[in-house]
Write a structure and sequence with these properties.
- The protein has 254 residues and is an alpha+beta fold.
- It folds into two domains: 65 residues, no CATH class; 180 residues, Glucose Permease (Domain IIA) (Distorted Sandwich).
- Helix content is 22%, strand content 31%.
- It is built from four helices and 16 strands.
- Strands 6, 7, 8, 11, 12, 13, 14, 15 and 16 form a nine-stranded antiparallel sheet that branches. Strands 2-1-3 form a three-stranded mixed sheet. A two-stranded antiparallel ribbon has the order 4-5.
- Bound molecules: zinc ion.
- The site of zinc ion has 4 residues, from loops.
Length: 254
């Protein structure tokens, strides 16, 4: 009898200890879950960005799903016509001495380069972001909008010049690359707007410094890296400094 009571008491004691440990574990786990943020694709809502979050957030933990990361690297044509950059260049560039990236611009007083590629499509062709996710980081509906561009003087010094780009949209992609579309006819997006591959962001046009240059309407497309340096869109595949962090900072997750 005495022994049975002892065994029972010991068992109850162990059970209570186990219960306390389990409760503490669950409380801790709940706390961790509250700090968790998951960024993924919302397929039900037109493949838009979906952020799932805990209730109380003080430390930010972000999980990117493999599906989301996979989508980061799928760049496509701004015209949603399924062409790669190489194909776009072959199909839409008119003149290899004036329309390519890196060709000379400006005068001998201050020499600059063509910071993008010119894609000749009919005026008012709809344009879209280059990947399935993007954030509008700059936008202007001003036909004479100016963008700062570097040029080199004969003595080798660098000067910053304002170049009339006209109506402009700049979009940041998760990898940290930004695209700039200029000479637009119309813009349909706002600053900080989250866009996806199917968001019609604007229409190609003839605004900015090409208006009186005799050039036909076209899309001037630039790609810029984290340091705001342009690079040849043909070399997109060689771009090796992805920064998802930069994108996440811009997302402004609370
Ligand atoms: Zn151009």
């Amino acid at each position: 009898m005495k022994n049975t009571v002892k065994i029972h008491l010991t068992l109850y004691g162990l059970l209570i200890i186990l219960l306390i440990i389990t409760t503490a574990f669950i409380i801790d786990l709940n706390k961790k879950l509250d700090y968790l943020k998951i960024i993924t694709i919302d397929e039900k809502n037109g493949n838009s960005l979906k952020i799932m979050a805990g209730k109380k957030i003080s430390t930010r933990t972000i999980l990117l799903t493999p599906q989301m990361i996979d989508t980061f690297n799928k760049y496509k044509s701004p015209f949603n016509d399924n062409f790669t950059f190489d194909e776009l260049i072959k199909k839409y560039i008119n003149n290899k001495y004036t329309d390519h990236y890196g060709v000379k611009r400006g005068s001998a007083k201050c020499r600059r380069i063509h910071e993008g590629i010119d894609l000749f499509v009919p005026r008012k062709t709809p344009i879209y972001p280059l990947t399935d996710y993007g954030i509008v980081t700059e936008v202007s509906n001003n036909e004479k909008y100016l963008v700062k561009v570097e040029c080199k003087k004969p003595d080798g010094s660098i000067e910053i010049k304002n170049i009339e780009y006209g109506k402009t949209i700049r979009i940041l992609y998760p990898e940290g690359i930004e695209s700039i579309y200029t000479h637009l006819d119309s813009v349909f997006v706002e600053l900080n707007q989250v866009v996806n591959g199917n968001t019609k962001v604007g229409l190609t046009g003839l605004t900015g410094n090409i208006k009186n240059s005799g050039k036909a309407s076209h899309l001037h497309l630039e790609l810029r890296d984290l340091n705001n340096k342009s690079f040849d869109p043909r070399h997109k595949l060689r771009f090796n400094k992805p920064s998802i962090q930069y994108f996440l900072d811009k997302l402004d997750i609370e």
